[in-house]
Design goal:
homodimer; 165 residues; mainly alpha; Arc Repressor Mutant, subunit A; three-stranded antiparallel beta sheet
Chain lengths: 165, 165
């Protein structure tokens, strides 16, 4: 018994239930595969239907939620990507008449970006298609199963990895 | 009635059940968030515990499965990334003594890459930790729920988006 305990304390990294652990590893690979699959299909559909990209859609979606627009730093923080990446995307969307840069009152150096009227219309059309595509692809999940799966995903998303170096 | 049908035929993109469609859209955002969260935690843990990256781990995992090694083109195809990206990663792993390039018999121009003995040992240690991290993070999903969730994810991953341009 004491031997058994000694072995356990040497193997703090070992998982408590090997079968469940292997099943969770397979579950993670499926989670990754399903997400990459849907992202790939969305990327392809945005390209063929709207000649646009997922990052451009994400920028428009972030701005569609705020009438007054966002500073570049706010936009980067909402999208959790670096300012440099967002700048290039915003430049192209401004060229396309989808976004405008607006000076900020009381701050000569700052500008916000917001959707133009044309940009709002384009986004509405894209968002409707986006929802229909997701509905098609996630139609594999029955309405009665959605809640349970959402809860599980939310629990996963809020779980920190134990730092055990 | 005929008016109603005319409207419907004009709106082929409209979803059949708006409430379920919104729920699936929220489910997709949670799927994406959970996946990005786990990926981010793994990236951080690989960095702090092994001073390595997810793409390096993926290359080692692909090679751990084949004793004889893989040609660069085979490795790229397994990993579904471009040859150029894989080349840089392989170069560094060769420098680190984790991989070796081996000439292919009967083909002077071709080489395969395979794990060295040290590489195999390193990979075994990394794979054990990787499994423990996943077990910790996906511990939010009870063992009894794993199968149902796996099935749903498999159905999502095999669903093509309807091309309705």
């Amino acid at each position: 018994m004491s031997d058994h305990r000694a072995i356990q304390s040497d193997q703090l990294d070992a998982v408590s239930d090997p079968a469940a652990s292997k099943a969770r590893l397979r579950l993670w690979l499926k989670l990754l595969k399903a997400t990459k699959h849907v992202e790939g299909e969305l990327r392809e559909s945005f390209r063929t239907d709207f000649d646009t990209t997922l990052p451009r859609f994400d920028v428009m979606a972030a701005l569609d939620r705020v009438e007054a627009g966002l500073k570049m730093s706010e936009l980067s923080s909402v999208l959790r990507v670096s300012n440099g990446n967002v700048t290039g995307i915003v430049d192209r969307l401004v060229d396309d008449g989808v976004l405008v840069r607006v000076p900020v009152d009381h701050d000569r150096r700052a500008t916000t970006v917001r959707l133009t009227r044309a940009g709002k219309e384009q986004f509405a059309a894209m968002a409707a298609k986006h929802e229909a595509w997701i509905d098609e692809m996630l139609g594999a999940v029955d309405a009665s199963e959605i809640q349970a799966m959402s809860d599980q995903l939310e629990r996963i998303a809020s779980k920190r990895n134990k730092k055990d170096t």
